[in-house]
């Protein structure tokens, strides 16, 4: 709750917030009047956004030049290894096999001096026009799986090809998040547009487009973040 109050105080001083994840944005909207803020979205369906009053926030878009193919989580892990807080950077995009990241300008010098490698690959940072993806819409890998129910433990077990006991271990070890909170209840039933992530597996958005098989199981649809 401290992070929320910190950002509210920034807004009331006329300053922009830091990058906010979807859960933080929902809480802020509940605590503020609509005329108390505007929202800076780096692109149409960006997840991590900034609230501001009048002056647009100072944000930089970098292309991360790298020779070898890496994953979103590889880039994220390399940034966290530098002790950069999640509020200091926005979404990581992979577009046409190129990698991009939004950061607050306040960490430019530290970022450029220290973010030098991703998964043993040397990188080069190239600053781009921050409005480059103004009209961009995120792409997903479409996934279709068959499950007995929409319970999160059932869905995770199917995606990871493991039993429910192993899923409980993942929950205990805080390896599963639903809507940006660590999962606590294994019987949680997924709802349309719920976002969940599994450590070392990926991040997914649930789409409520269900159909039944002849045996009574459910065919469910997921968007996997690229």
Description:
The structure is a single chain. With 226 residues, this protein is an alpha+beta fold. The chain folds into 3 domains: 2-52, no CATH class; 59-128, RRM (RNA recognition motif) domain (Alpha-Beta Plaits, 2-Layer Sandwich), CATH 3.30.70; 140-225, Structural Genomics Hypothetical 15.5 Kd Protein In mrcA-pckA Intergenic Region, Chain A (Roll), CATH 3.10.290.10. It contains 6 helices and 14 strands. It has helices at 2-12, 22-31, 72-80, 108-114, 152-160, 164-172; strands spanning 38-40, 50-52, 59-65, 89-95, 98-104, 117-118, 121-122, 124-128, 140-147, 176-178, 181-182, 195-198, 202-212, 218-225. The strands form 4 sheets. It has a 6-stranded antiparallel β-sheet, with helices on one face. Strands 4-5-3-8 form a 4-stranded antiparallel β-sheet, covered by helices on one side. The relative contact order is 0.13. The model has no long low-confidence stretch (mean pLDDT 93).
What descriptors fit this protein?
226 residues, Alpha-Beta Plaits, 6-stranded antiparallel β-sheet, 32% strand, alpha+beta, globular, 4-stranded antiparallel β-sheet, 6 helices, Structural Genomics Hypothetical 15.5 Kd Protein In mrcA-pckA Intergenic Region, Chain A
The overall average pLDDT, rounded, is: 93
Structural class: alpha+beta
Q: In percent, how much strand structure appears in the residues?
A: 25-35%
- Give the strand line-up of the largest sheet: 9-14-13-12-10-11
Number of domains: 3
Q: Give helix and strand order, one letter per element, not per position.
A: HHEEEHEEHEEEEHHEEEEE
Which CATH architecture of the largest domain is right?
Roll
CATH classification class of the largest domain: Alpha Beta
| Overall geometric form | globular
- Spatial gap, N to C terminus: 30 Å
CATH fold name of the largest domain? Structural Genomics Hypothetical 15.5 Kd Protein In mrcA-pckA Intergenic Region, Chain A
CATH superfamily of the largest domain: RNA-binding S4 domain
Q: Number of DSSP strands?
A: 14
Please give the largest β-sheet: 6 strands, antiparallel
How much helix is in the residues?
10-25%
Detail the poorly predicted runs: none
The Cα radius of gyration reads: 19 Å
């Amino acid at each position: 709750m401290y992070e929320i109050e910190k950002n509210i105080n920034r807004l009331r001083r006329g300053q922009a917030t830091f990058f906010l994840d979807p859960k933080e944005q929902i809480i802020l909207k509940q605590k503020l009047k609509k005329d108390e803020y505007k929202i800076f979205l780096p692109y149409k369906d960006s997840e991590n956004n900034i609230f501001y009053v009048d002056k647009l926030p100072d944000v930089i878009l970098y292309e991360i030049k790298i020779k070898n193919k890496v994953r979103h989580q590889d880039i994220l892990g390399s940034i966290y290894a530098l002790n950069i807080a999640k509020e200091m950077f926005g979404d990581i995009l992979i577009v046409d096999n190129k990698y991009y990241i939004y950061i607050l300008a306040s960490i430019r010098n530290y970022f450029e001096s220290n973010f030098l490698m991703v998964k043993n690959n040397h990188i080069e940072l190239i600053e781009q026009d921050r409005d480059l993806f103004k009209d961009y819409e995120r792409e997903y890998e479409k996934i279709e799986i068959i499950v007995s129910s929409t319970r999160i433990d059932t869905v995770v077990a199917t995606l990871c090809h493991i039993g429910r006991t192993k899923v409980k271990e993942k929950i205990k070890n805080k390896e599963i998040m639903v809507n940006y909170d660590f999962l606590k209840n294994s019987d949680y039933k997924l709802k349309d547009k719920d976002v969940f992530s599994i450590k070392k597996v990926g991040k997914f958005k649930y789409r409520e487009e269900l159909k039944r098989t002849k045996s009574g199981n459910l065919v469910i649809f997921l968007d996997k973040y690229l």
